[in-house]
Design brief:
Oligomer: single chain
Main location: other
Protein name: Oligopeptide binding protein
CATH architecture of the largest domain: 3-Layer(aba) Sandwich
Distance between the termini: 24 Å
Largest sheet: 9 strands, mixed
Number of helices: 14
CATH class of the largest domain: Alpha Beta
Pfam families: SBP_bac_5 (PF00496)
Number of domains: 2
GO molecular function: peptide transmembrane transporter activity
Family: Belongs to the bacterial solute-binding protein 5 family.
Helix content: 25-40%
């Protein structure tokens, strides 16, 4: 069923978030916050419908592979769809949307290798190019869009359904430049009335929306909370705003001590709890010149001394679950390779001998960077203490504002850092292909042809339930390399006023933030 025009003169539902997006241009961002917001503003050919394991048609009438090798994917665009500016969406717009990402990625790669371009003038690109690693070409055939893949890739429909596949107006977006005016020309359930980075986004129902969702007729105002100049965390600011009754929905990280005291039976507010797909990791780069993290032995010792139970208990107040695999609970391929390899209580004497036998003088110095996250400062300090215990490491921790952190991460400037990762789509490949594959979204510099081969094996399997063994093998190899070390998996919690409905569908493991599900009684 397709739903059409709806207007609204109602007061907006105010949603609080601790994750401000870096951009509202789908070709320019891969951070989860940007994807969440943009999933309300743009349409893709496919979408993720709650309760369905496979993507469903959105802007497309139909999509499917046309060959048994899963290398040609054809979609038929529905007719009559329009952008928010009134222009009709054409197959050429769809082609442009994908070609643009590839073109910007190629430009960034080309300029990065050009010594004649000053570093501060090179194209700083953070778009989803790694998710299109299998896409070789896009062509238009009448009302159809044909995607030609370089190799078998059963996960491609999931990429199409995400924000990577968001359709933009080719007359409003430049092929080789990021749109920076904070405006949107899309065709999603909402229009972007205004967007102020790190402050707020005002959304109103799109009267010309034509898609699979029935959209609430309430406008939405998203308030973004970031660390204050006085050091007050975004999480504390969100909690204070909730206590003052300034927001209707708290859908951001709250301080662990606040979460621990929430009473799910209280009549004063609604609570929705679930096992989230987001994970927290420590990333150790292998290609920073002069960094000790280029040595696998050093990375393995750092991974071994990490006490996840203590982090979950002491810092996060049991609001998260210790994680021993990059694939979290709830996804095919989940296991405990880090626990199997390193255990919970390594012998300090053995670790000392391992490092000294490798020729190191202890303690080994390195810098650990971090940015936003629940109890982020306390977490970084505890991890520092764990690494420095028994005289193995001498760790300097450095905090960065998110808007500074992401470009530095993407430029490969950190030898070690803490970061969260949220699934782009509901398949274990989202914790594998981008993190451990050639795209190297974490910029670790790690290369492993055996892992790459196993990734291609999983991409070739159309029955996703049969990929379990391959994913487990991939993550056993990843645990041995210790370039991306899992720490914990979130327990997702959303608070809302007693008159707010729709929380159960607001977010899942698909990278979609269904603000259109929210309504007020």
């Amino acid at each position: 069923m397709l739903f059409g025009p709806k207007g609204s003169d109602k007061d907006p539902i105010v949603v609080g978030s601790t994750s401000p997006p870096t951009s509202v241009d789908p070709g320019a961002a891969t951070d989860a916050a940007a994807w969440y917001l943009m999933s309300n503003l743009y349409q893709s050919l496919l979408t993720f419908v709650p309760g369905k394991e496979e993507p469903e048609p959105d802007a497309a009438e139909s999509c499917g592979f046309t060959d048994t090798e899963l290398t040609v994917y054809r979609c038929t665009l529905r007719e009559g769809l329009t952008f928010s500016n009134g222009r009709e969406i054409t197959p050429d717009d769809v082609k442009f949307s994908y070609d643009r990402i590839l073109a910007m990625g190629e430009r960034a790669s080309r300029e990065a290798d050009d010594p004649n371009i000053p570093e501060d003038e090179k194209f700083n690109y953070s778009g989803p190019i790694t998710l299109l690693s299998s896409l070789e070409a896009v062509r238009v055939d009448g009302q159809d869009i044909v995607f030609e893949l370089s190799h078998t890739d059963a996960t491609f429909p999931f990429i199409v359904a995400g924000t990577t596949g968001a359709i933009v107006d080719r007359e409003k977006y430049e092929e080789l430049e990021v749109r920076t005016d904070n405006k949107v020309d899309g065709s999603g359930p909402y229009l972007l009335k205004s967007f102020t980075p790190d402050v707020s986004a005002e959304l109103v129902p799109n009267p010309n929306y034509d898609g699979p969702y029935e959209v609430s007729d309430f406008p939405i105002t998203v308030r973004y909370f970031v660390q204050d100049e006085d050091g007050t965390s975004a999480e504390d600011l969100l909690a204070e705003s909730w206590d003052r009754g300034e927001i209707d929905v708290a859908d951001g990280k709250l301080p662990p001590e606040v979460v621990a005291e929430i009473n799910s039976a209280s009549p004063e507010y609604r609570v929705y709890e679930s096992t989230g797909g987001s994970i927290r990791v420590m990333t150790l780069a292998t290609d920073i010149e002069g960094s000790v993290m280029s040595d696998e032995t050093v990375r393995q010792v750092a991974a071994a001394v990490l006490d996840r139970q203590a982090i979950a208990r002491q810092v996060q107040r049991n609001t998260v679950e210790p994680l021993y695999s990059l694939i979290p609970v709830g996804f095919t391929g989940h296991g405990t390779p880090y626990h199997d390899l390193y255990g919970d209580a390594p012998d300090p004497a053995e670790l000392t001998q391992k490092l000294e036998s490798a020729g190191y003088e202890l303690p080994i110095p390195f810098t650990l960077a971090y940015s936003r996250g629940a109890a982020n400062h306390e977490e970084a300090e505890l991890i520092q203490q764990q690494l420095e215990a028994d005289g193995l490491f001498d760790v300097e921790i450095e905090y960065y504002d998110w808007q500074e952190f992401i470009p530095m991460k993407n430029a490969g400037e950190f030898e070690a850092y803490l970061i969260g990762w949220r699934p782009d789509y509901p398949d274990p490949a989202t914790f594998t292909d981008s993190l451990l594959g050639p795209g190297d979204s974490m910029r670790t510099g790690y290369v492993n042809s055996e892992i790459y081969g196993l990734i291609e094996e999983t991409q070739a399997e159309s029955d996703r339930g049969r990929t379990d063994d391959s994913f487990r093998e991939i993550h056993e190899l990843a645990a041995d390399a210790a370039t991306i070390v899992p720490i914990w998996q979130e327990k997702r919690l959303v608070l809302a006023g007693p008159d707010i409905t729709g929380l159960q569908h607001l977010q899942g493991s698909s990278g979609v933030w269904r603000l259109w599900e929210l309504s007020r009684l």
